[in-house]
Specification:
HAD family hydrolase; two-stranded antiparallel sheet; six-stranded parallel β-sheet; 216 residues; HAD-SF_hydro_IA; DNA polymerase, domain 1; globular; 8 strands; alpha/beta; Rossmann fold
Length: 216
């Protein structure tokens, strides 16, 4: 039986929004334009959830700050302006968030996106009013460090024991563990079931509708 919580902290990409393909495409285009090595789709999928600086450091360990910054800047160009494809919410997310809000849950977002990027998708989806707090990777240390989550707990006055993190990567699971917060994994995002299960979440769920039922 699911434990009772007051605050649910969601990851964004791969948990609420089906954006992995766009992120991979924008990274590969940015690396190509920056004349930097392209590791292919799967290594890029594995770093989704990290802040941009941390993601590029993982993808380009043999390159210096100038190379990585060039790729970061070009990635932002693609994601915010040049790639016209608009990512969509996963099935059941909009209805599920309304249901959770009506059920009395407070909801927040802790994401590897920049503030500018999160503001854009919250505006496009109209979901901004759903969340009492949001924290981004350009405002705090990147996952798996717990700072984003600790900042949200502080902003909401919530004790860690009353909060639940829901995410699709090991970075989300580790962030929660470092903050002493329970975590629930979703397996429809970027990290595999075995990777997530190794982090010992409360459960590994295959759809957002399963998340809704787990919380009901």
């Amino acid at each position: 039986m699911a434990r009772s919580y007051d605050l649910i902290v969601f990851d964004w990409d791969g948990t609420l929004m089906d954006s992995a393909d766009k992120i991979v495409r924008c990274f590969r285009n940015a690396l190509r334009d920056s004349a930097l090595p392209d590791p292919g789709d799967e290594p890029i999928r594995q770093i989704i959830g990290l802040g941009l600086d941390e993601a590029l450091a993982a993808l380009l360990p043999g390159h210096g700050d100038a190379d990585r910054q060039r790729a970061v800047d070009r990635y932002r160009d693609y994601f915010l302006h040049l790639d016209a494809d608009q990512s969509v919410l996963f099935p059941g997310v909009r209805e599920g968030l309304v249901e959770m809000s009506d059920g009395g849950y407070l909801m927040a977002v802790a994401t590897g996106k920049s503030r500018r990027g999160l503001h854009r998708v919250l505006t496009e989806t109209g979901l901004a009013p759903m969340f009492v707090a949001t924290r981004c990777a350009d405002e705090a240390r990147s996952k798996p460090h717990p700072q984003m989550l600790l900042d949200i707990l502080d902003a909401t006055g919530m004790d860690a024991s009353r909060a639940l993190v829901i995410g699709d990567t090991v970075y989300d699971m580790d962030m929660a563990r470092h903050a002493g917060v329970d975590a629930l994994a979703v397996t429809y995002g970027v990290h595999r079931h075995d990777q997530l299960q190794a982090c010992h979440p409360l459960g590994c769920l295959g759809s957002f509708d399963e998340v809704r039922r787990w919380l009901a």
